[in-house]
Amino acid sequence: MQSRAIHIHRHGGPEVLEQVEVEVPLPAPGEVTIRQTAIGLNFADIYQRRGSHGPHAAAPWPITLGAQGAGVIEAVGEGVRNLRPGDPVAYLQPGGYQVTRNVQADRVVSLPTGISEEAAGANLLRGLTAEYLLRRLFVVRPGDAVLVHAAAGGMGVLLSQWARALGATVIGTVGSPQKAEVARAHGCHHVIDYRQEDFAARTLDLTGGQGVAVVYDAVGKDVFVPSLRCLRPRGMAINYGTASGDVEGFDLQLLHAKSLSVCRPTLRTFVADPRELRAAAQALFDIVAQGQVRLEVGQRYPLAEVRRAHHDLENRLTTGAPVLVP
Predict the structure, then answer these.
(1) Handedness of CA 29, 35, 40, 44 (dihedral sign)
(2) Are residues 179 and 238 in the same domain?
(3) Domain holding 94: CATH number?
(4) Is there a single domain that holds both residue 201 and residue 254?
(5) Which residue, of 246, 267, 288, is where some domain finishes?
(6) Do 149 and 97 share a structural domain?
(7) How much is the pLDDT for 326?
(8) In this model, does residue 54 exceed pLDDT 80?
(9) pLDDT digits 0-9 by tens, 239-281
(10) Which of the four pLDDT bands, split at 50, 70 and 90, describes residue 58?
């Protein structure tokens, strides 16, 4: 079977993304073949395209970017149980920029009624990231104050809604008045335009000088060290993305006075066990079913316009969770 795919043969800008035709073999034992209807677009794809640091493993050229998608199962390999042709599913596995592909069955989750393929394809990776950031790495409790950087982005809107559902006071940072409206509509009690005011000083003001319990930082270099000022004693700064560049060496003594913690996690280690993947997905689907978190889709890009999609995401021109449509 032939399928369209997007390959890169070298690192660089969006221009290195090339559309090709590839052969898709029959699914091997333990695999399923998925005809995708939605392919997730994440900043991690840009890191990999650039050749930046990240959780992605080294791979031989050409590389197929992408790590998530959704669609319908077309075939199942030997030994696969509980998944059948015709089932709507989503998955996490490298090589997502391809219309039809084979995926390990233990990386696949079935979609319940009420979760569309498009919403899952755009949001599964972000939703599972929000799950472990809020419920496992740092357990957000009622009454906590949290700071969410890039609160109008695909991750930010999920973190803000879910944190609010957990009873937290949510403070979000954004870069424009338009994005401030998005953040307010998705769970933020307070929104700070970092281009207009000092977000650290404003966060301390909003918390009566106490600071927040946790900072969720997908921006990195530009905000990480100033974010430490926002934390309450024994608070945690979590850097899970580096849109502005890597956080390089900093003075550990900055953590000493308030016994602060910092962490640079990756989703991969929190869903490596298939049981953890399924449990995290169930938690995400449950909070959506309860109406407390919305899995929305931002901009939609045809797969053939993947270069434009990367340009827009890289230049912070998107809101919410953008998606590639095969």
Answers:
(1) positive
(2) yes
(3) 3.90.180.10
(4) yes
(5) 267
(6) no
(7) 94
(8) no
(9) 998 777 878 888 899 999 999 999 999 999 999 999 999 999 9
(10) confident
Which pLDDT does position 55 carry in this prediction? Answer: 66
Segment 50-62 mean pLDDT: 80
Helix residue ranges per DSSP H, 43-116: 43-50
- Give the Cβ contact number of residue 32 at 10 Å: 24
The answer to whether residues 223 and 105 belong to one domain is no
In this prediction, residue 53 has a pLDDT band, given cuts at 50, 70 and 90, of low
Domain extent, residue 142, equals 126-267
User: Which tops the pLDDT comparison, 202 or 241?
Assistant: 202
**Domain stop point among 267, 294, 312:** 267
Give pLDDT, residue 248. 83
Q: What is the pLDDT of residues 77-120, one digit of tens each?
A: 999 999 999 999 999 999 999 999 999 999 999 999 999 999 99
Residues 10 and 117 in one domain: yes
Total domains, the chain:
2
User: How far, in Å, CA of 64 to CA of 94, rounded?
Assistant: 8
139 and 103 within one domain: no
- Could you tell me if 236 and 149 lie in one domain? yes
In this structure, the answer to whether residues 183 and 254 fall within a common structural domain is yes
